[in-house]
């Protein structure tokens, strides 16, 4: 017997009063028990009465469960509890089951610590009443002279400062007491100087021993509190807590004088907007009033993001030479994958046994042609590779510069105690010259991007060495200035989870170091290769891989990459540099390749925000957007299968994105959506954003749900009206295939006849009355999927045209109402190489797909 409960045991649910609490139990019967057997399911809780009591849970008809096997049949038990008369506070529940013939109940919780927790909240306070905002968060009285208030949109923000004595760089703790009305929280805790992890908790803070760089709290009123420590005025701040859960500001004053430690508080109704407002306010405090979201991404940077990249680290680790690089690129070429940018990671530099840099040049015996000769050869053999980058650390190498090398004759260095060992780093007066000389050399050799590691290095310099710890700003200023001058925006920050570096990010300008990319690579052939590939595909960030040569999982890579059109005047040899047969891949080597990257960063869904999916039986839910189409990723982080539920409100901002079409003839059905499940290849329709969907995801697996608003059009056939409902899913053979959709609309036949990029016309059908035309513009090729439902008519025929070419691989699954159109490589290539003279003024080449739908 398999049993699933939602909300899951061990989880915490926040339920505003007036909102009902729904509890569902799914039970998969053993083969030994047939359905007539009586099965009693009870809720055991203190929600209803003042003492613990049992409530019978009624069985309901089984609804559709996505991912449920044909041999599985779950019984569903559901109870809805009104919260209207329940007092504010904490409650718990568990579930017990008894079958006819059993003497005892089977409990889902073996002890009280495994129960599910529920907090019933009162009606939210009015945020417009801004009386003593500080008192709404802290129990302790804080001197108003130390508080600076600001209104950021609908979010109240304020900065709290506290004077700190000069203490030879040793830690100082400032206790601000308990957090008022704290229900649950999530925070970013430093696992080490290099990495952060999310940590969740309830009731009170529990962060005694590790630095925390961000806290998001949900209060009993329903408000969200965002807390962000600052690094400024020579003080590095982070959060910790005392034994009673009181908030402690943990301060390192690296000044030789008294200074001020600060942190920012935000209070609002939306956790994402509240956090964003805090970040904006920090910029204002630091004098960066003109820093806005950077939407003006220049062409070079855009290319970096939208190509698939390669990093050598996990494939080679230690020393790596010229031949290894060619081996890696030849390996991808052999399977038809074009790498857009290449990152040469650790192992190319000349260093001593103490891990200190000796020269700018690469190891001679490993790079006989030098960087310049090697990169020239690479671009001849692999002309589609536009950028070649190299790795180094902030100090040059892990332990700085070799004091006996030529570099020490040019740049002054000092001995520094770092993590209980002696290292040598360049003094700040010479670091600008160092980076200028280093990057000037790299640029002259054909290097066009850098990855700068060990960004948190200065935090590891021993307390008390304040002079050396203060050097971090000079280093980062030098890095930012020179990387922009020599490489534009093509700089990647790695191991950058340091209060200093994060502050630099928040107070930065519009260049790449102000928005660092942390390590984001994966191996396609790894056991969890697809698991990570799917996550990165919807993340909104770059996608780069670190495969061992000739060890690839091609089906994973194909789902990340899409072919796009090009001009005929672009020489085929400039793309397809190999004569090898690439029939094993669905990708064309004669057309450009890119990834499908969402327009913004992915967000944790609200139901996942305060839950640790590695410890409780809930799916990790991550959402993003591709124009008007939503994407919801579901990851099972457990070692057993999970049955969970979601609704479309998990996709942040769904009501604002999909309800703006008001064409009288062709409309969106407001609140009606078609869903496509990437792994299960299933479709599903929901009538509103709050309609629940049940899904099973196997252990350590994932699902990606494409959420497309349904359009409809009314037509006429044989004097009878009919309605066609359609929703584009995009490229259903790609992880983030909806990103391929640029636009979609119903069109008239006259528009269809004039909307092709060549002069061929489609012959009109004999019966024009029963035809509907639909046009989709896409960025690239693959298997196109649509939800298609003729509603009150019968689908007679569906034709698909790529431009003006009638396509053959068109299938319609009447049960799923899924129309799929699969392109062969020949279709892509014949369509994709356009006539440049005719389309000279078109900035972006688009794939145009036309549907001709005939209804009887």
Mind explaining what this structure looks like?
By secondary structure, this protein is an alpha+beta fold. It folds into four domains: 2-121, Sandwich (Immunoglobulin-like), CATH 2.60.40.10; 133-285, no CATH class; 301-595, Aldolase class I (TIM Barrel); 603-855, Sandwich (Immunoglobulin-like), CATH 2.60.40. 16% of the residues lie in helices and 37% in strands. The chain has 16 helices and 54 strands. The strands form twelve sheets. Strands 37, 38, 39, 41, 42, 44, 45, 48, 51 and 52 form a ten-stranded antiparallel β-sheet that branches. The chain has a seven-stranded antiparallel β-sheet with strand order 12-13-22-18-17-15-16, covered by helices on one side. The chain has a seven-stranded parallel β-sheet with strand order 31-30-27-24-23-33-32. Strand 12 and strand 13 form a beta hairpin. It is globular, with a radius of gyration of 30 Å. Mean pLDDT is 87; it is low at 291-303, 505-519, 660-670 and 757-767.
